[in-house]
Amino acid sequence: MSFARIAFLAVPALALVLAIETENARPQNAPEAPPSEEIVRKVRLSVRVEGDGRDAYLEIPLPVSDERQTVLVEKLQPRGFRVEEVERDGNRLAILSHPAFEGRKRITYEATVRLRPARFEVPEVPVAADDPPREEWKWLRPTRQLQSASPLIREKLIDYARPRLAEGENDALRICWDLVKTGYRRKKDGSKTVLKATRTGHAAPKGMERLLATFLRTSGVPSRPVHGVDLGLSRKKRSRFWVEVKVGDEWIPMSVSRDLWGELPAEYLKLAHGDRPLFVRDGIASLSFRWRVSDVENAREVIEP
């Protein structure tokens, strides 16, 4: 992609108890990590929902086994909800529905997972690289939270990239990373939205990850946000948010807010990717959830609103 393309980018237009035992073979190009760094955890997600008589719909993301994480055993208890498992854009989702749902119910999902850290060699992504294949266009399009076609975003990227390109730098990935690291102030209560963060100059950790994904899409590099959970945390919230970048045939993890360049700790369990909320719901008056993580005889539990 040429620098002119960055300036004027036009992105393409956009049961029931379920019990499964799996043991997936790892691809030969899996990110390397010594066996001693693997961890096995028992994870329990409890989702409390309250209905007001409307037809209820709920999507719960389920972890997918891949070269870094393996779901060994899992069980879903829908407590009277009808459930269907579907695959959508590479995500595995439990679709739960209940007609005229009233009262309160607790839906639980339990899994034993094996995880290991990921470490990738991150190659340069030339600014003048060819356009990605058509099947990857979905990871370039503007979305509700990733306004990659916004004039404000394009102007911010051009102003930052122009002098670096003039000096001979040619790595679109590094330019976008450095723009977020140096162009925005990390603030715990900062903005989580891309446009507001660009106007104010500060961003919350989730906002920084969205900024990275947005600038990458504006530059023509396929990218997507990721929802996950940090199984090593014991404080109030375990939720984690990072970015995956498509380089060649691999999706490489990045977290600009936590200085993770091509790597993820073993404790990070991926749940879903794409510009979507963690739980998609309709006809549900309120929802809260909690995680319980067990390691040998110890268990820690946190509740999230």
Describe the protein in words.
With 305 residues, the chain is α+β, with helices and mostly antiparallel strands. It has 2 domains: 3-14 and 119-273, C8orf32 fold (Roll); 18-117 and 277-304, Immunoglobulin-like. The protein has helices spanning 3-7, 151-166, 172-183, 194-200, 205-218, and strands at residues 18-21, 39-52, 56-62, 69-77, 82-88, 91-98, 102-115, 118-119, 185-191, 202-203, 223-230, 239-247, 250-255, 260-261, 263-264, 268-273, 280-282, 286-295, 298-304. A 6-stranded antiparallel β-sheet has the order 1-4-7-2-18-19, with no helix packed on it. Strands 14-13-12-11-16 form a 5-stranded antiparallel β-sheet, with helices on one face. Helix 3 packs antiparallel against helix 5. The model is unreliable at 1-30 and 296-303 (pLDDT under 50).
Feature tags:
single chain, 305 residues, alpha+beta, C8orf32 fold, Immunoglobulin-like, 2 domains, 6-stranded antiparallel beta sheet, 18% helix, disordered C terminus
Mean pLDDT over all positions: 87
Using the CA coordinates, give the radius of gyration: 20 Å
- Report the order of strands and helices: HEEEEEEEEHHEHEHEEEEEEEEE
CATH class of the largest domain: Alpha Beta
> From the helix content, strand content and strand pairing, which structural class follows?
alpha+beta
**Largest sheet at a glance?**
6 strands, antiparallel
- Low-confidence parts lasting 5 or more residues at pLDDT below 50? 1-30, 296-303
Q: Give the % helix.
A: 10-25%
Question: What does the oligomeric state look like here?
Answer: single chain
The total beta strand count reads 19
* Percent of sequence in beta strands: 35-45%
Give the tally of structural domains.
2
Compute the separation of the termini in Å. 43 Å
Strands of the largest sheet, in order across it? Answer: 1-4-7-2-18-19
CATH architecture descriptor name of the largest domain: Roll
Count of DSSP helices? Answer: 5
CATH topology of the largest domain: C8orf32 fold
Apparent shape:
globular
